[in-house]
Amino acid sequence: MTQPLSEQxxxxxxxxxxxxxAHGLDIVHEMYSRMFKNPDIRDLFNQSHHGVSDAQPRAxxxxxxxxxxxxxxxxxxxxxxxxxxxxxxxxxxxxxxxxHVGEALLGAIKAVLGDAAxxxxxxxxxxxxxxxxxxxxxxxxxIYTEQRDSGGGWNGWRDFRIEEIIEESSVIKSFILRPADxxxxxEHKPGQYLTFWFEIxxxxxxxxxYSISSAPNGATxxxxxxxxxxxxxxxxxxxxxxxxxxxxxxxxxGEFFLADNAERPIVLLSGGVGLTPxxxxxxxxxxxxxxxxxxxxxxxxxxxxxxxxDHVRQLASKSSLVRVTDFHQTPQADEVAGRDYDHxxxxxxxxxxxxxxxxxxxxxxxGPRPFLRHAVSALSLxxxxxxxxxxxxxxxxxxxxxx
Length: 403
What we know:
The chain is an alpha/beta fold. The chain is 39% helix and 19% strand. Helix 2 packs across helix 4 (55-69), helix 5 packs across helix 7 and helix 6 runs antiparallel to helix 7 (119-149).
C-alpha cells in the first residue's frame, strides 16, 4: 500500500504553486525535451499532441497544477486519475517507464527554477511524484488484468486486419476490423476507444486513439475516422490503408462509456465526428431494448459531412422510444428540411434545455472542444448535476474541468 504523504511534503508542494503558475509550461517543455531524448520513451506518446497547438504540454501543466493545489484532497482528482490511467493503458505504459518520467520532471524543475528549487523542494516533489505514480501503476495493473482475463481480451499489441471500408461521408470512413488470428474480441463498453500503433514510412511510430463506433459483437470492431487537415494517421488510413491491411491494436480502454442499466432518460449529444461513440451507444441501447426515452442529437455542417445518417434512422425505427434530431449548420442549397435535416443552424442552449428532459436525463456528449465546452457549461448552468453529464473529447487531457 502506498504510504500517505508527509505533512512537510504537502506543505512544500503547495508552496510551489505560485512558481508553477509562473513557470509551469516551461517546466513541462523541459521535461518532455529530456524524456524524448530516449526514443523508446518518445515513441510511447501521441506526437500529434505536441505540435503547434501545444495541447499535451498545456494539459500536463494543468494536471500538475491541479495535483499541487489539491494534494491534501486527492479525492477531487479521482476522475482525472482514472482518465490518465485509461490513456496510459491504451498507450501501453508500464511500471518501468515511470522512473524516466520522474527523473525528467525533477530535472526540469531544477533546470527552470534554478536555486529556488532547493534540495528540500526536490525531495518533496519526488515523494509526491511517486505517491501519484504508485496509485496510477496499481490502477493500470488492474485494468491490464481485466483486459487479459476478459473473453477475447489481450495485453500489448494485437494484429487486426481491415475487413471492410465504408464511405460514411465526404470526410469520414468506417473501418471494420477483425483479429488476424481469427479469435474473438473482448466486449468493449460502448463509448470506449482503441489505441493504434501505426508504422508510416518516414515517421517514428504513430499512436492514435479512435472510438469504437459499433456495439459489442464479440467478433469485430468498427472505427469511423475523420480525415483531419494535415492529419498524418487519418490521412494514411483514408489514402493508403485498404482491405487486408494489418494494424496493431491495443485492447479497448476509456472511462467514458454507457452505463449498464438505463434508469433515466438518455441524451446522446454529438458534433461532427463526435458521433462515433454515440452510434455505438445507440446500437447498444436498441439491442438492449431499453424502456427509457433516448434522444439522439447530432450537429454537422451539411448533408455531405453527415455520417451514418441512414444507419442511425434505421436504428431509431426499431424503437418507439428513440428520437433522432439532426442539425445542419449550413445546409446546401438543395437540402430539404424534414428530409435531409431537422433544424438549420447549431444546437442552441435554449433548444437543448427546452427539448430534452434536463431535470431527469443522463447526458453523453462528444465533439470538438468548443462544442463540448459550450454544452457542458450550458447544462451545468441549467442545473443539470455534474454526475449526469458524461463527456469525451478527442484530445490529451481534461481541460473541461474549468467549465
